[in-house]
Amino acid sequence: MDSEWSRLSTELPGWVEASRKQSSQGKVASYIPELAHAPWDALGVTILDGSSGRVNAGNHELLFTLQSISKVFTLLLALMDKGEDSVFAKVGMEPTGDNFNSMLKLELVDPGIPFNPLINAGAITVSSLIDGDTPAQKTERILSFFRELAGDSSLTYNDAVFRSETATAHRNRSLAYFLKANGVLDADVEEVLQVYFKHCSIEVNCLHLARMALVLAYDGTDPQTGRQLIPRRYVQIAKSFMITCGMYNESGAFAIRVGLPAKSGVSGGVLALVPGRYGIGVVGPALNAKGNSTAGVHLLETLSAAFDWSIF
């Protein structure tokens, strides 16, 4: 492993520059207007091991919002709050094969619950299951949880992105009201959406992502402190969803080409992990047609091939 870490430290900058060229094949997300300001050709990565070792390359200090990556961790918090039975009475466990913001199967497939917690309808539902009497209390609990996992007590949300998302989220509102009509959402739709938009707007860098991934890589234990932050069973569930649904409807191709549990977001972030070894945070804002970072996925494919990281 020492030779692998040494090679990582030496070759990572070159691999980042080679993958950066893939940015020209993608486009920065603009359907949330505030996201359109991101530098299209940025690419950064941080990799952490369990002994506090760290390697960085590229634009690893670039700030970006979690977007859909947050869905993994709100799922974990909802499981810790409510347990498996309550969560999976409201949301399913299967990939959809549809776009992440599709409404199609909510109407076509009984019982009308979201197929999984990593599509928008599922994540909105999960947001409603977080403990707290008000949206502010729920948001504060989510933020505290994310701060602990990321190892940064100053972590907060980007207000401009939150406002931009709130103002333009017509599809998400449609999904939420449909869920309300189906009896999946019990709470006030706008209050649930406020919680959802805020956790999607939490701002991080690659180090934060890698730190959060490292806890998952070590089955819920923070290897740097020895504290068990998440029950192992719930991490198993989250990692299973990351493999089957984490890269939108490109998850099958990613499993074949990279073979690591991962979750992407439309700000260009990708969280990935090598079980028992590494937490990885990547950002590359230019996205492909599926909503995944073109350069970021290429970099992860390069790394997985170079070190035979695939879990399959």
From TrEMBL:
InterPro entries listed in its UniProt record: Beta-lactam/transpept-like, Glutaminase
SUPFAM superfamilies, sorted: beta-lactamase/transpeptidase-like
EC class name: hydrolase
One term of GO molecular function: glutaminase activity
Family of this protein: Belongs to the glutaminase family.
Binding-site residues, substrate: S68, N120, E165, N172, Y196, Y248, V266
The EC number(s) this enzyme carries: 3.5.1.2
Subunit-level organization: Homotetramer.
Protein name: Glutaminase
Catalytic activity: L-glutamine + H2O = L-glutamate + NH4(+)
